[in-house]
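thoughts on both lines:
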Amino acid sequence: MKCLFTEPLKNWFGYTRRERRASLLLLLIIIAVAGVRYLFPGRESDIKVIPLNFSLTGTDTTQPGNVYSHSPVNGKPVTTVNKLKKNILDINTCDSASLVALPGIGPVLSARIIKYRKLLGGFASVNQLREVYGLSTETFDLISGMVKADSPAVKKININSAEYRQLLRMPYLDKTEVAAILKYRELKGRIGGMNEMIDNKLVRIEVAEKVKPYLEFN
């Protein structure tokens, strides 16, 4: 006698006995897999947030010339500061190519600076660059912080033994002053110092200030 419930289901699905066994086995496998995932849930991966302002190397714009490097220590970035040393150009020893590299200085101005340096015997002060023909105030203001004048490099003139042509080559002395110096030296034998030159009106006070770094009185 056939079951009243089984026969309609069998007719509805149209399964054979082998197909029903396979379906039952597949259902058991699906249940088993779902049970394992429920009993052993997978670990969620940690999400790390990297700050936007963090980088391996960077520059702090609030401190010009500082370079920052980051290296992790115990998981935290550590910042080290390296000071960048500016290369200051010595206008008494530099060559023409170094001068041309300065902003506003071309080959013509570079040649004039070196020529004037030779004429002076070296720059005693950076401000003497203002005396170079064609070097504008704007250019001087632009480069004044990039250069220096090493005063020991200045060649001095012995006022008590220098000849007429040697003294006349000094840009700050004119013919009248050179003649007065030689005449005074002839009469007195020697000049003791700058104050003596000023007191005896051998040079004007403003000239004395300019020429002082270039004279010695031995």
In short: Residues 49-73, 77-85 have pLDDT under 50 and may be disordered.
